[in-house]
Specification:
mainly alpha; Arc Repressor Mutant, subunit A; globular
């Protein structure tokens, strides 16, 4: 019997492991990336100079702010920031934001947090046309009506449903 020779690495084993590693670490490219929204954060209130410049350069923003004042009354700097973010950061058209304002007024939820939350949700859901906004408003109205019936039948106090109750 002869002595065993020096250990020679098995090249095929290394190649197999390398291929396996490559398969697990290389992710396929996404087909089409959804528009990314800025992270949720406290909105920075625009200063007077920025607001003046933005309304001067965009007739649409000017008309949105006029519509918002007609709908909600005098706008706070925070509400102005939410409206600008809805259009500039979230990409919602002015007409869609105006529909959102009218809906918020109708249900009595005209706070900046609510309007910002709904605007962000609509942007994430792809509500960028008047038709999509009308469909979304119809869906929200139906949910609100159904919750009203359920809560009245169950004797619950008037409130919005929780996430679990939806």
């Amino acid at each position: 019997m002869g002595r065993p020779g020096p250990a020679v690495p098995d090249e095929t084993l290394e190649k197999k492991e390398l291929k396996k590693l490559q398969k697990t670490t290389v992710a396929p490219a996404p087909e089409k990336a959804a528009p990314t929204l800025p992270p949720k954060k406290r909105l920075v209130k625009p200063d007077a100079a920025y607001l003046a410049a933005r309304t001067k350069e965009s007739a649409e923003i000017r008309s949105l702010l006029q519509e918002a004042e007609a709908t909600l009354g005098i706008l706070s700097p925070a509400m102005t920031a939410v409206l600008l973010a809805s259009c500039d950061d979230y990409g919602l058209p002015v007409e869609v934001v105006a529909m959102l304002l009218h809906y918020a007024k109708e249900i009595g939820k005209t706070g900046t947090a609510y309007i910002d939350s709904v605007a962000r949700d609509w942007a994430e859901s792809g509500v960028f046309t008047l038709e999509a906004a009308e469909s979304k408003l119809q869906e929200l109205s139906e949910k609100r009506l159904a919750w009203g019936k359920v809560s009245a039948a169950a004797g619950l106090p008037k409130r919005s449903p929780s996430k679990k109750e939806e």
